[in-house]
Amino acid sequence: xxxxxxxxxxxxxxxAVHTLNYILxxxxxxxxxxxxxxxSGLLKILVVDDELSDVLKLLDSLRDELHLRVVKYEPNRGxx
Length: 80
Fold this sequence. Notes:
By secondary structure, the protein is α+β, with helices and mostly antiparallel strands. It has 3 helices and 4 strands. The chain has helices spanning 14-25, 52-61, 63-66, and strands at 5-11, 32-36, 43-48, 69-75. Strand 2 and strand 3 (43-48) form a beta hairpin. The longest helix is centred in the first third of the chain and has 12 residues, at 14-25. The model has no long low-confidence stretch (mean pLDDT 87).
């Protein structure tokens, strides 16, 4: 397992966040959904780099159904 974590920022309607959480809970230890940033309105997801590619593919597969868009991802700086 890697020691590097990434923050993935997702634009998603607030009404779809619960559905996304429900889907992601089925993927054991894949990601950690953090919060919606009050300034940007983006959902922040924490993921280890070993799983980053899989998470991005999963989010892409849900893009049309949940009206979401991955805005960016970057190494986590240790800030929740």
